[in-house]
Amino acid sequence: MQSAIRPSSRLWLALLAAFCAPSGVHAEPPPKALPCMAGAPLQNRYTPVQLYLTVDVCGRQRPFYDIAAKMFVLGSLYGYYDTLRVKDESAHQAITAMKMSVTPRFTDDFRAHLQTMTSGPKLAELCRSMRQIGPPTYYPSYMVAHGLQSIEHRLQGEDDEDDALDHSHTPQEMWAYVLDAYLHCPQ
Fold it and tell me: In the chain, where are the structural domains located?
């Protein structure tokens, strides 16, 4: 089956990731969409870039609505989590830019499915699933490199990766906060 991502949007996401990729310790290969598999286990190593690329494909195919909705929610939660740990506020727009690229192409059916999954009785089940996956384990290079501080450091030939993250809270504290503040998970 052919990909439902338009070449321009796929290119935009790839360019964002490639341009913003640091060249230091946390350099990563270009992101790729994950396979669409109903019931596929989500992992805390997936970045919002990977998750949104996959939602853009899987969210167009009814058999994969559940996993696509969970990927969108996880990508959004991880994006919010990353805004809390990345110090450079100018970098925080990376997640908004990605969402703006993907969400306009959601079908009405997928939007309705996503709404059902994130409200009412389904919300508690979704929250349990997100708690089990837990906070991200990846380094948020997609966001760090998007910020002006990182760009300035790279232009000057400096490495700022060690100073990019705020470590004042534990991952579990931040994850609990994100689940409450962003997804409004019941306790």
Answer: 7-181
The pTM score is 0.81
Q: Give the model confidence (pLDDT) of 92-137 as tens digits.
A: 999 999 999 999 999 999 999 999 999 988 999 999 999 999 999 9
Amino acid at 120: G
List for the chain the helix, strand, coil content (%; round to 5). Answer: 60, 0, 35
Q: Which residues pair with 165 in a beta bridge?
A: 86
What is the chain's mean pLDDT, rounded?
82
- Integer CA distances (angstroms), 180 to 157, 167, 184, 185, in order: 40, 20, 4, 5
Cβ atoms of residues 13 and 7 within 8 Å: no
Cβ-Cβ contacts under 8 Å for 185 (sequence gap 6 or more): 123, 124, 127, 130, 131, 179
Q: Are 84 and 39 in contact (CB under 8 A)?
A: no
φ, ψ (nearest 5 deg) of residue 11: -65, -45
Tens-digit pLDDT profile for residues 145-161? 877 565 555 555 666 55
d(CA 121, CA 108): 21
Spatial distance between the Cα atoms of 91 and 98, rounded to a whole number of angstroms: 12
Amino acid identity of residue 35, one-letter, is P
